[in-house]
């Protein structure tokens, strides 16, 4: 799952065919350097990655976009989900507190 997410992110940054994208292996550290700071990852229907997200996928997104200064993760979902791995919240809505960022 982690490689699939890295591949999805990387293929948005370069021009490649769908065939090339299927065979692409993405190095996380190289992608991290390429992204730099001030990046917002917008994911429509994150539930397509799995409900709940597996722990590897959740950790990757958290480390690369929520734990890294200057990066943000915004997603939509049809299911109440937590940013913690292997968790689905059984409520009609999800209220997620935003992290406090200190300068």
Structure description:
The chain has 103 residues and is α+β, with helices and mostly antiparallel strands. 35% of the residues lie in helices and 10% in strands. The chain has one domain (2-75). The chain contains four helices and two strands. A two-stranded parallel sheet has the order 1-2. It is globular. It starts with a helix and ends in a 28-residue tail after the last strand. The mean pLDDT is 79.
How are the SSEs placed, and which strands pair?
Blueprint (H helix, E strand, L loop, with lengths): L1 H10 L6 H6 L4 H8 L3 E5 L11 H12 L4 E5 L28
Parallel strand pairs: 1-2
Which word captures the global form?
Answer: globular
- The chain-level mean pLDDT equals 79
Determine the fraction of residues in helical runs and give it as a percent range: 25-40%
Structural class: alpha+beta
Tally of individual domains: 1
Low-confidence stretches are none
Q: What descriptive keywords fit this protein?
A:
103 residues; two-stranded parallel ribbon; single chain; globular; alpha+beta
Compact description:
It contains four helices and two strands, in the order αααβαβ. It has 103 residues and is α+β, with helices and mostly antiparallel strands.
């Amino acid at each position: 799952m982690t490689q699939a997410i890295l591949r999805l992110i990387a293929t948005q940054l370069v021009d490649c065919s769908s065939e090339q994208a299927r065979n692409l292996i993405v190095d996380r550290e190289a992608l991290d350097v390429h992204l730099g700071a001030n990046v917002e990852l917008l994911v429509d229907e994150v539930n397509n990655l799995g409900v709940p997200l597996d722990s590897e996928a959740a950790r990757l997104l958290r480390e690369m976009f929520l734990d890294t200064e200057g990066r943000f993760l915004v997603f939509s979902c049809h299911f109440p989900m937590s940013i913690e791995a292997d968790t689905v919240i059984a409520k009609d809505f999800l209220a997620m507190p935003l992290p406090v960022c200190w300068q």
